[in-house]
What does this fold into?
Amino acid sequence: ARPFPWEPEARAVGAPRAATAGSDPRARRALSGPGMFADRTAPGADVQSLWRSARSARCEAKTCQTGKISTAEAAAQSHTARDAAVQTEQSKDPVQDFQQEVQVDYSGLLSFLQRVEDVVIKELNKNWKSHAFDGFEVNWTDQDETVLCLHTLSYPEAQDHNLQVTSVSWNATGSVIACSYGRLDNGDWSTEKSYVCTWNLDRRGLNPQHPDLVVDVPSSVMCLAFHPSQPSLIAGGLFSGELVVWDTSRTEDPVIWRTGMTDDTHTDPVYQVNWLPDTKHRNHARLLSVATDGKILVWREERDGRLALAEGFAIVAQQIPRSTRLKKVAWGEAAVGVTSLSFSHFDPGVFVVGVEGGYSLRCSTAAQSPALPRPGGSVPLRAPAELAFSPHAGPVYSVSCSPFHRQSCFLLPPSPRNLFLSCGTDGQVHLHSMLQTQPLFALQLSKKYLFCICWSPVRPLVFAAASGEGVHLFDLARSTQKPTVSLKQSLSHCPVYCLEFNTKHTRLLAAGDAAGTVKVWQLSSDFTEQGPREMSHLEQLASEIMD
It folds into this structure.
């Protein structure tokens, strides 16, 4: 049987060719007859691929996916630790060792010292008498020469009524600042409502336009003063002449004492209040008030919430002592309204007042001369004035005694303990000694009014002044002719009416202006770090100016 029907049948060479159907009609008939075709099943064919085997032998994989990338983790830290010293080993040869014993020629050293002894002693004596390094102090800390504004505080409701900041005061801890609102230029003061506001600068979430406490006052508040040891007590003087003491820890009714309107009450606006220690009762304090009616009154607290008059003084024109160095003026016509007061820090019985007539007066609480009779009053008033100083060309608005003094009582004038500053509407600052009428120097600071002046509590040569142009800081060690720094309180160049140093946080200075804002300035270290012999410098400066 042939494997495939289409393959020709094999025959032997030379064998006769078989007849085909095409050539033999009989054959064609035989093929067309029945029985020529039958069903047959042939086995499948298996054809091996030579192309695949050849590719496999050459390891040529043809796929689209890349092969798997093998990874392994290797730590950089070594398994063992070892210390290695960088110090060189000690030399085995002691001669070459750096720490070998030094051979000193003592006889040669002695001969050298004997030769230069006279020259060295001469130079040491010369240096000992030299003042080239007076006032020099090594300071290894970084110096901050800028003055920054830390806070700008205001009460929008007071500003809406065009009220001005008339006074500022720090409490006993130095963390709370209070301000009073009123008006110093015009308006119906007697009926206009005002406010007393406080902010705690240490409180979290301080809102500069939302005071921690707001006290409504029926009359304009002209001045404020916190109690020196009780942080919640604050006294205020009103335009009506009254005195009021508030307790800021009481939110319902903070008023605890007041003078009321009596025959003893001031008849003019109160421009300054001071707390005084009560020598008879240690736990109590007394209040001192000054007003343009010429009275200086001392009040004591009563149990019924009333302030009662304890003693008083009056500045009367006819009883002001006259000085031969002053120009002759009509004393009977001079104004005697008191605008400011400052106590001496070395003698609590001595104080200086500024009056509307332009004079500064040295006064004494020990004065016994009665003042000229005045109608009414439960306590007789005394005349305290002892010395009149050379006047300003306008009313005196502020005086400030130097808080520094020496312990020795044998110092010759002018001593720093006898110095005080004054300023007024003439734009001048006068530095005075309490022992002479003429000023040690007069500085024309501004062409506008000077409203307040305050001596630094930590540096004898530094003071601040509030003017119609802003805040001025002076360092007399640098210059006696111009301010060291001038600060613009606002863009509108509104006048600054009041300022006060913080005695606890000595780098803080608060100032209130006519726009109704209080700015808390952070002073640079130049204004708060006292140099050596600074008090001697002030004394020497005063002596040179006087000579």
